[in-house]
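Lay summary. Proteins are chains of building blocks that fold into shapes, and those shapes determine what they do. In this project we predict the shape from the chain. Here is one chain we studied, written as its sequence of building blocks.
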Amino acid sequence: MDPSARIYSRFNLRLYDVVVLVVSNAWAWRCSTTLTLLPFFHKNLGESAHLDVGAGTGYYLAKSVHPLSKTGNVTLLDLNEATLNTATSRLRHAGYKGTIDEVHHNVFQPLPESLRGRFDSVSLFYVLHCLPGRMEDKGPKVLANLADGLRPDGVLYGATILGRGQGVSHNWLGRRLMCLYNKKGMFGNADDTLDELKRALERYFEQVEVKLVGVVALFEARRPKMKCTRKAS
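And here is the predicted shape, written in a compact code that computers can read:
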């Protein structure tokens, strides 16, 4: 398993919300979880079927449980069984009564046939910056695979921490965390830029919106172009 996925042991997941969602987001990446990321997640969440890629602790889904009461199915996709189990447990504890499917899957591989064309929304929060490789290489592969999961009127949305480029200025804490996490293989975003992310999205979607908050890029992509996986191969 890649270091970026292996790091999420059951013990580390207990610390994730405090270390990442409270401390790092506020002080290192300068993008508030509660003021920016959670409202962004909530706004784009579909009402029928949702695919959450990189399940983490299930924080965003659990906090969005009210609109999820209308959602018949949530599918969690991750390489790590611990994150899948943790997110499912948290979502149930928050009161979600619909169907939850856990899918153990590598985002660099095409989606299983059963997941294609199925979802109103696909969320990709804090996944791209954890993947190895340059954005110009990893972005198209991952986005093409996930675009295949959307219905024609669906939306793929998410957030990723950028490494450099116009408008990206890391503070003292951010620079040190970036160096540490990239060195350990937990991050692979040292060269990720906003322009490369936007180009990757525009390759597979007709409508793309990207904005920068702190050093975090928030993106929405709609109207997926046809046969995305075949184009990426």
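What the prediction tells us: The chain has one domain: 3-232.
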